[in-house]
Structure formats: structure tokens, C-alpha cells
Amino acid sequence: TALRRAARLRVAGDFPPGEPRPPELKQGTAIAIGGGGMPEGILRRFVDLAGGAEASIVVLPTANPDPLPRRDRFADLLREMGAGKVTVLPERTRDVVEGEEYLATLREATGIWFGGGRQWRFVDAYLHTKALPLMHDVLARGGVVMGSSAGASIQAEYLARGNPLGNLDIMAEGYEQGLSFLPGIAIDQHFAQRQRFADMSSLVKKYPQLLGIGIDEATALVVQGRIGEVTGRGSVHFFDVGKPVAEGQSGYESVPSGGRYDLVDRQVLDRGNEAGSN
Questions:
Q1: Which residues, including other chains, have CB under 8 Å from residue 140's CB and lie 6 or more apart?
Q2: Which of 30, 149, 202, 243 is 20 to 30 A (C-alpha) from 109?
Q3: Residue 18 burial (C-beta neighbours within 10 Å; 0-12, 13-18, 19+)
Q4: What is the model's pTM?
Q5: pLDDT tens-digit profile of 123-175?
């Protein structure tokens, strides 16, 4: 499957594009969480952005291995927080994903949750299907997409750690294409906790046109427009090989909770609760 995907990308043209679209949302909100727990208040924010009592939220446990549990705990949490309608779409086969029931649910969605697990399962289920444009429409209507761990990485144009054979390789031919809610970006998670700095450095060195983003556990990057806001216990780390690096410094900038980053200009706007440049 990876070889077939790699061949398809080569026929279609270079990926990632040499000059990707700017990572800017015209409408809506994208929230990427680094796994390892939820930042305080992020679930409430997600439900509110989706419309609260008027929300229609889709929960995708797609990245989990089989067998999937009959009851989805995250969906129950959203209902307890007052979300008007919560629908779990657990299937991964193309005939179901492109069936009228799934497509109709996505057409009315105001929010989508991408669960954790292995991000390659999202690729196999949704890339190049009729469902994917409907997911993008959620943002175009002013809705929200949110995901943690695998559900964070899949939101980027470049998919980090997509190898179905293991999660140690940050680049895996055939599984490099994410769902592209955030173009021109690669997102990795569990970042400082698993010491993934060198991996992201190698990715942006190979693809300098990309902005690399590493998100710590229990930490979120909330993107509206071109601005990413950091919230949670840790930091978000931004890798831009186009910036000069002074001797003795690392090639990234770390922004803690409360900080903001301009994804288009690739610059820190606010360092939040503490100094975080490296």
C-alpha cells in the first residue's frame, strides 16, 4: 500500500509542494493536541466553537486498532458538556466512508474530533475520498476540527510518523500526505517527552519549505486565521530552517502556554508565561 501511494504521488507531482500554500485558515478553528492528556478548558472550548447546544460533532476513533469499543468515552464526555448532537463514525472501509450515511453526517457537522492511535489509519480511511472535502467544509463554514496525538499530526499537509510498520520514522514514503487542514506544515506530538527534536530537525532540513511544529503532551496549538495560540502544561516548538541560528543555539523556537505564533510570517508574537526561545 505504501508503494502504491508513493507511486501515485510521483505521478501527481512533487510532494510536498516546493511552494506550499500559506498555513492560514480563512474560516474556522483547528486545534492540535500533543497527546498525554488534555489542556484545561480545551474540551469546553471545542464544544463552544462547534456550537454548544446547537453543535453537530463527529467523533472519529479511526486511528485506533480493532476491535473498537462499542461505546466511545470521548463522545460521552462531549454529550455531558452539552454538545447538541454527537455521532461516532468508526468504520474505515471505503464503501462505508463514502456511503450516504457518513457523507450526510459530515455535511451537517460543525465540529470533528480526530482521536489518537496511529495516523496512517486516517490516511487509509479518508485520503482521496468524497468524505475529505466535506471535512474541509466544516472549517469553511466556521466550524472546528480538533485532534490529539495521531489526530494532531493528521491535520497537517505533511504527515509525520505515518509509517504503518512503526512510529520511529518521522518520514515514511507513501505515507507522507496528511489531510491538509493546515498546509505547509508538519506536526509531531509527545514532543519533548519523547525527545523528538532531532527528528523534526531532519524533516525540515530535507523539506525546508515546511514549517515544523512539535507539540508537548497536555499542550495544544489553537489555530485561527494565521495565528497559533499555545495553551496547556508544556510548549509548542517551531522549526524554520530559513531563520539564521546563532552559534550555540538550537534551530527552533519554543513557545509556552499563553504564547502566540504567526504561522505565515513564522515569528513569535508573544512568548506567553515564560521566555522560551532556543
A1: 26, 27, 28
A2: 149
A3: exposed
A4: 0.95
A5: 999 999 999 999 999 999 999 999 999 999 999 999 999 999 999 999 999 99
